[in-house]
Amino acid sequence: MIQALETVGLRKTFGDFVAVDGIDLVVPRGSFYGFLGPNGAGKSTTIKCLTGLLRPTAGTIRILDLDPVSDAVAVKRMTGVVPEDLALFDRLSGAETLAFVGQVHGLDRASQRQRADELLALMDLRAAAGELVADYSHGMRKKLALAAALLPAPRLLFLDEPFEGIDAVASRQIKNLLAAFVRGGGTVFLTSHILEIVERLCDHIGVIHRGRLVTQGTLEDLRRGAAAGRTLEELFLDVIGAEQADTPSLEWLAR
Amino acid sequence: MRTLRAFVWLRWRLLANALKGGQRRDRLEQISRAVAMIMPLLLIALSIGSVVGMTILGFVAGRTIITGLAPAPDVLVVVRIVLAFVLVVVVFFAFWLPTQSSLTRYTRLLLLPISRRTLHAVEFAAAVADPWVGFIAPGLLAFAVALGLGGLGAGAAVAAIAGLLLLASLAGIASLIGFLVSWLFRSRRRSELFTILFVVVLSLGSFVPALVSSRFETRQRDAEASGSFEEVRRSRDARRADLARWFGWSKGLPTELYGAAVHGALDGRPAAAAGAMALLGVEALLLFLGSSAMHARLIGSVEGRGRSRAGARSGAMWRLPLLSPAASAVASAQVRTALRSVRGRLALLLPGPLLAGLVIVFGRVPDSGRIVEVLDAHGHALLGAGMVLSIYSFQPFTMNLFGTDRAGLSLQFLLPVSAGDLTRGKLAGIGLALGATCLLCVVCALAVVPLSSSSLWLATLIGGAATYVWLAPVFIWMSALFPVAADLSKTGSGGNPHGLAMLVGTLAVPIVAIPAAALVLAADVWLDRPALAVPLMLAWFAVAVGGAMPLASLAARTVTIRRENLAMVAQGR
Prior knowledge:
The structure holds two protein chains of two kinds.
Chain A: E1 5-14, E2 17-23, E3 26-27, E4 32-36, H1 43-50, E5 58-63, H2 72-78, E6 79-82, H3 94-104, H4 109-122, H5 138-150, E7 156-160, H6 168-183, E8 187-191, H7 195-201, E9 204-209, E10 212-218, H8 219-224, H9 232-240
Parallel strand pairs in A: 4-8, 4-9, 6-7, 7-8
Antiparallel strand pairs in A: 1-2, 1-3, 1-5, 9-10
Helix pairs in contact in A: 3-4, 3-5
Chain B: H1 2-20, H2 27-67, H3 72-100, H4 105-110, H5 116-128, H6 131-134, H7 136-149, H8 153-184, H9 188-205, H10 207-226, H11 229-246, H12 254-266, H13 270-300, H14 325-339, H15 342-349, H16 351-364, H17 369-377, H18 379-393, H19 395-398, H20 407-414, H21 419-448, H22 454-481, H23 499-526, H24 533-561, H25 563-570
Helix pairs in contact in B: 1-2, 1-5, 2-3, 2-7, 3-8, 3-12, 5-8, 5-13, 7-8, 8-12, 8-13, 9-15, 10-11, 10-16, 12-13, 14-21, 15-21, 16-21, 17-18, 18-21, 18-22, 18-23, 20-25, 21-22, 22-23, 22-24, 23-24
């Protein structure tokens, strides 16, 4: 079966620092893949390697059975990305941003406009469509970045912390939208610190810690080996081996 | 006192950080980082040197009066000049520093357990410790001490009190302007408008002294030509009267009031000294109250982002001929983002009017008849100069094609845009913006010189386009090799390209422009067939396209190779 995403021995170093240490990801088509890890574990670096923003030091990547290095443009036609820094022009309006993305993807003007209108309405950005992105709040930017990622109807979505800074209403709408996207055959590769969301949305989980993939599989696989009733948060802490004993007591805070 | 100490430290730290500039990641730039590390040490050395120098200067000035080496009024002229210079420095830094520090500074200060009134008082007092204010304090003190040691007790007392009031006034000016500028910068649109107006007014205002001076010189020359001594005397009197009328307000400057107070005391006119000191005191008080009001307004204002009109920018991207849809989209985005930035607007607005202003000033300078004649006959030369100036003014974009988009570059890297389309689109976009600037140059040039020959003007425009095409590979290579995350809302170094890229660009422009200029010159002067200039220049343009395009494609490969580095610069790393 062709996977939506597959890496073999993916490694990325910055000088002596190893950010990603030979990980083998397997993301099945039509899956909702949650990529978890503590801060600095290498999640964003991995996403940047997968989306072409960083060049892997070693290893191979296949996205929708294509090589993202030699077939970069073809891969990008089939993927949508909401990166960590949101990747938006400050001095384009929301509507212009979507028009830009649509034109780059070769959409005709009518479909471009129709899709943009629907996405702006869904994200509750229609009233602010003419404002410059520089004047958007963080949440508005995030919603616009998501709209830009969805506009070309990608087959694989990379989302780096998509729910951070998003209000509850929009968050609910986006969750429904993403669930529908996966039901329609799309694949989502998502990183998030909000484990409740990951638990509710994702059917596949990968956990990275200190640059290494410490576990990967379906949510059921992950639960199978653990005691009954364990939440994803507890499982996650077990997997990365977080030691509570290391936490300073901060006794001076007590009155 | 602890709070005051913390604020003094904060002001010095912000200054040192502003001098240090942003982080750079290129290997070549690590040298400039190392140089930047020296800045705080340099600052300390300069500070100590300035304090010692000012103290010696103040003491020597006082001793010169006591020993009668020079008359007191003459010594005071020097003191007033030094203080006037300090005043200019105070005003400059008061304008400049808030534009370099974080806008969230005041929000952060508000969270501290300090009342707003105390916050203002401490900020005001801390302004006295700013280097440009603090440096003169020992000098003023030494001046008063020297007068006192020399037996001029009254003069010393007045110098000391007026010195304190002067320091308070300078701190007031620094605070008032600093708070005002910080308040302006709390809104993006307000700050950008302010920056544009500031730079435009400063640039065009620089012509005023030349215009005034040429007016005086013309009047003087006419008077001398009349051969009448009376006329010459009258002309000089009129000049003096004009200057006194125009600069009468300067008597109210704190530094001048300080000079007047000390002069009054040394001259045995206590009433004059008291009057000047009283005025200085009133000024210091008004500045304190003004800065307090401005401070209240600043910290009371909600950090606004100055929303633009909704619906105003909902237009689609353009489809440009000869470019793919992706390159067209990149070009459209480039034009819009460039011309919506402070640097872009200044690059668009300044070259034409600046050149026209220069021509007007030249026209008024006596003996400028020959220059005016040449410009009247060869007005296209002015247009050519305007186009070269325009290319230079777009250097923040051309020499840093990828660092100016910041997060927008990440978006372009994540979308299906090839390196070729990206560079072609960017160059087309900047070319369009540059074209608009050149058209403004045409309008401004036509306003001050006649249209000598439409062929030559057209040829000059084509020559400008050819120059731009020749420069395209240089733009791509320099931008790919030396990218810098630039903030184009800043007029300072934060919006500049890499120093080396700027240097290369500065040298490359004349080298590439010379053949075009030579062709126009050949058709106009040597061959005396202006009509020939257009076909000649079209041929040169074709050569430029034929020669530069393969080089540009080659340069685009550098973009592919340097993609990761560029992506990291886009993320501000």
